[in-house]
């Protein structure tokens, strides 16, 4: 017996192609549409047995909000997500929102059809290998590189970042003071604070550390150095 269903996908052409293929296999497709603010409303109003919800970004916040709405207003509708091989957070988010299944978007039509039938029967429709991969990644997460540049940048004030940039450019205390419109003693104090916060003993070490960690690139991407002050400033 065919399934009464709807197809909702990020790409309308893909939704229509999948809908056509399922019609040829004897299923009743009520609508094929691209997701939008009204997608959940459409599913709720048509009340299919199964909704195939396609997405290219399963881990993006809010992408499964339509499922929450559908399950709230039409709890009998089984939602099967079609998406890329997800991160553990992506597949968890889908089921937490109320999905009955998750199928790879490149799955053969027979696999999609099996998932639809299982979801309609109230079973979880997900490839065991997909779950195994997700659980393996959860138990053995890939190590994330330590972004030392970002961490060090957070230790410095905007004024100290400007001082570090000038140090890396080879400016001495006199040039730093002149360029920033501050007294040489103030410039010297800023330099010492920068060295202390970075945990280095010399200007050369500070410049090398900033270059190695990408700190200077991050500083350049920020709001930029503060405008020069008029006259000497207190340290």
From TrEMBL:
Keyword terms: DNA-binding, Transcription, Transcription regulation
GO molecular function: DNA binding
The keyword DNA-binding is assigned to this record: yes
Annotated ranges, domain HTH luxR-type: 149-214
Entries under InterPro entries matching the protein: CheY-like_superfamily, Sig_transdc_resp-reg_C-effctor, Sig_transdc_resp-reg_receiver, Tscrpt_reg_LuxR_C
Pfam families: GerE (PF00196)
Domain Response regulatory, first and last residues per copy: 4-120
Swiss-Prot/TrEMBL GO biological process terms: phosphorelay signal transduction system; regulation of DNA-templated transcription
PROSITE patterns, alphabetized: HTH_LUXR_2, RESPONSE_REGULATORY
PANTHER family linked to this entry: DNA-BINDING TRANSCRIPTIONAL ACTIVATOR DEVR_DOSR
Protein name: LuxR C-terminal-related transcriptional regulator
Taxonomic lineage of the native organism: Bacteria, Bacillati, Actinomycetota, Actinomycetes, Kitasatosporales
């Amino acid at each position: 017996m065919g399934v009464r269903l709807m197809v909702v996908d990020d790409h309308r052409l893909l939704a229509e192609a999948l809908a056509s293929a399922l019609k040829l296999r004897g299923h009743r497709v009520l609508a094929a549409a691209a997701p939008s603010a009204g997608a959940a409303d459409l599913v709720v109003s048509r009340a299919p047995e199964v909704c195939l919800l396609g997405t290219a970004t399963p881990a993006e916040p809010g992408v499964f909000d339509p499922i929450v709405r559908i399950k709230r207003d039409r709890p009998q509708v089984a939602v099967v997500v079609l998406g890329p091989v997800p991160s553990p957070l992506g597949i968890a988010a889908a089921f937490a929102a109320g999905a009955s299944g998750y199928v790879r978007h490149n799955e053969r039509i027979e696999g999609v059809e099996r998932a639809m039938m299982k979801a309609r029967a109230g079973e979880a429709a997900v490839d065991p290998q997909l779950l195994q991969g997700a659980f393996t990644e959860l138990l053995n997460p890939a190590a994330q590189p330590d972004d030392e540049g970002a961490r060090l940048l957070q230790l410095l004030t905007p004024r100290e970042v400007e001082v570090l940039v000038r140090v890396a450019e080879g400016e001495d205390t006199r040039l730093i003071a002149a360029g920033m419109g501050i007294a040489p003693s103030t410039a010297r104090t800023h330099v010492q604070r920068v060295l202390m916060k970075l945990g280095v003993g010399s200007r050369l070490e500070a410049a090398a550390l900033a270059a190695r960690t990408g700190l200077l690139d991050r500083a350049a991407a920020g709001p930029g150095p503060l405008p020069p002050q008029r006259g000497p400033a207190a340290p």
